[in-house]
Amino acid sequence: MICSKRLKFISSFLCRPKTVSVKMKIDKMAEVIKCSEEKAYAKAAQFLEDGHVIAVPTDTIYGLACSANCPQAIKKLYAIKGRDSAKPVAICVTYIEDVRKWGNAEHLSDDLLHTLLPGPVTVVLEKTRHLDNPFLNPKTIKIGIRIPQNLFINKVTKIFDKPIALTSANFSNEPSTLSVKEFEHLYGHLGAVFDGGVLSEGLERNRTGSTVVDLSNIGTYTIIRKGISYDKIVTVLEDNGLRSIE
């Protein structure tokens, strides 16, 4: 089944983001699968198809991922994080055409998008009608979209061929994680953990994750989170004639 009946218990926790992750029912501990294993990316796509939340490497930090258009999977993602449902999560896709399908990017040139993506940047746009999960970012009309520069997650998104919700692999308000050992306390709530080794060279400054920039308005940009590629992204945006709105 796409969304397991086991997930029904989650809704009762969603209003208590500070304690939900501690009190969630523990399923069996997730299997840790090396990303280098044959067909590991196909296994990841199947876990997503089955409605699970999994841990995956990106080009910055480890993330928790699930099917973005599966309501029960999104509910579970928020419950695992202990996250307020008003706080948005991003989606991960494969191609620039996918960015345009799920986000309103008519005002952005292909040249600009191809310069920004793939890479450690999250582009925030207004959702299109195709992204119709009422539990995905219900408090905003916008969505952050990523194309990480990571071979494993790129293969997963290509096989899954649907948007993947993506947020950092930690409890809310905890530091982001650069290795799978750092979020072992989440294993009991995950379908699987895909181990891509130590990310971002293990550098503490890279725990800030991707640079998040709102490009939803014509001719302007707003930096929401500086992240690890702030200077490069600002240069690209201003070279393309966009002006900052703080």
UniProtKB/TrEMBL annotation:
Transmembrane segments: none annotated. One of its GO terms (biological process) is regulation of translational fidelity. InterPro entries: DHBP_synth_RibB-like_a/b_dom, Sua5-like_dom, TC-AMP_synthase_SUA5. It catalyses: L-threonine + hydrogencarbonate + ATP = L-threonylcarbamoyladenylate + diphosphate + H2O. Its EC number is 2.7.7.87. It is found in: Cell membrane; Cytoplasm; Mitochondrion. It comes from the Eukaryota. Gene3D superfamilies: DHBP synthase. One of its GO terms (cellular component) is plasma membrane. Keywords: Cell membrane, Cytoplasm, Membrane, Mitochondrion, Transferase, Transit peptide. GO terms for molecular function: double-stranded RNA binding; L-threonylcarbamoyladenylate synthase; tRNA binding. Residues 38-229 form the YrdC-like domain. It is a peripheral membrane protein. Belongs to the SUA5 family. Interacts with RSC1A1. NCBIfam families: L-threonylcarbamoyladenylate synthase (TIGR00057). Cytoplasmic and mitochondrial threonylcarbamoyl-AMP synthase required for the formation of a threonylcarbamoyl group on adenosine at position 37 (t(6)A37) in tRNAs that read codons beginning with adenine. Catalyzes the conversion of L-threonine, HCO(3)(-)/CO(2) and ATP to give threonylcarbamoyl-AMP (TC-AMP) as the acyladenylate intermediate, with the release of diphosphate. Participates in t(6)A37 formation in cytoplasmic and mitochondrial tRNAs. May regulate the activity of some transporters. This is Threonylcarbamoyl-AMP synthase.
